[in-house]
Amino acid sequence: MILHRFFVIRRLSVAALALCVALQAHGGVAASDEPLASHATDEEAQLNLFRQRGGGAGGAVCLPLADERDPDIRRNRSMLASFPVCLSKATVRDAGRADWVFTTYSNKAAPNGPVWYLPHDDEDAAFDAAVYAIATYGGRFIAANAREERNFGSIDPNRAFGRTNGSVGPCAITRAYPAYTKFVMDGFRGARNILTLHTNMDGPPLNVRVNSEKLRGYPATANVGLSDPDNVVILAGRQPLENNRRVARFATALRGAGINVIYERVTRANNDCSLSNYVTLSGDRRLYVNIEAQDGARTAQKRMIDIVMRQLGVRPVR
Length: 318
Ligand SMILES: [Zn+2]
Hints:
This protein is α/β, with parallel strands linked by helices. It has a single domain (14-312), classed as Aminopeptidase (3-Layer(aba) Sandwich), CATH 3.40.630. Helices cover 27% and strands 19% of the residues. The chain contains nine helices and ten strands. The chain has a ten-stranded mixed β-sheet, with helices on both faces. The radius of gyration is 19 Å and the shape is globular. The chain binds zinc ion.
C-alpha cells in the first residue's frame, strides 16, 4: 500500500531489517488523517531516506554516552550515569528539505515505560525533566536534535505534523512532512499515552488564563505550590471538554491534584500541525498529555510529571 525505501547505513541487524520490512508491508502507521482514497499514496511514495545509528526502542546497539558533546547530555551527565541508558540517533528525510535529526534515550532497566516526544531542542528544562522522567518511571524519550535551536531551518518541528498536503492547509507549513510524522508516531508504537514536554517562554503567551475558541484554561482546584499560571498540562480533543468524558475525568483529577489544565479543542479548520492536533485529527484514541512549565522551572516540571504519572497509574521503577 505504502512504498517506503529504507537505506540502512550500518549497525542495523538483518533481523531488525526484516522487522522493518514486515512493518512496512503491514502498512506502517495505522492512523491516517486523510481517507485512503486521497492522493496520500503519491506523497508517501516520495523517497524517504532513513538512517539510524544505535538501537532504538528494543534495539540491541546503543551508542556510548561518553562520546557525546551535546550540551543537553553534558548538563545531565550525572543523572544519565545513574541508570542504564540506551542512546540512539536517527536521521529522517522528507523529499526536498534538510534532514530531521533525533536522539532517543531509553531506560534499559525498564524499557516498556511511558514514551515522550520533545520537539524543541532549545527547551533545556524540558529535556532535564525528560531525563528525570525515564530515570524514575522507565520508558524512553525521543528528542529533536536541532543544534539547540527551536526550529530545523525555518520549520518548527511542533508545527510540522501531517502526512498529506491536503491536511496541512490551515498550518504554517506549505506541504506535509510524512517521513517526519511517521518517524515520531512510530516512536509511540506500543505506548499507552502520547506524552510531551515543553517550556513556555517561547511563542505567544500560553497560560491557564487563556480563553479562546480553541484553547480554554481550567485552574487547579487545590494548591500544592504549582499554581503559577504558566505551569499547565495541556490536553486535547475534538469535542468540547464537557462532552469528552474520558479527558474531562482526567482534567478534573489533575486539577484536584493541584495542576492547571488547558484543553485544546481541535478541528480540521483550526489544525496547526502540532502533535496534539495531529494525534486528535488522526483519530488516535490515546490520551495526549503535554506538561508545560515556565522556562527554568525544573523542580515544578518534575513535580508535575510525578502527579501526571500517579494519575495515569504509572509507578516509579526506582
Ligand atoms: Zn516547545
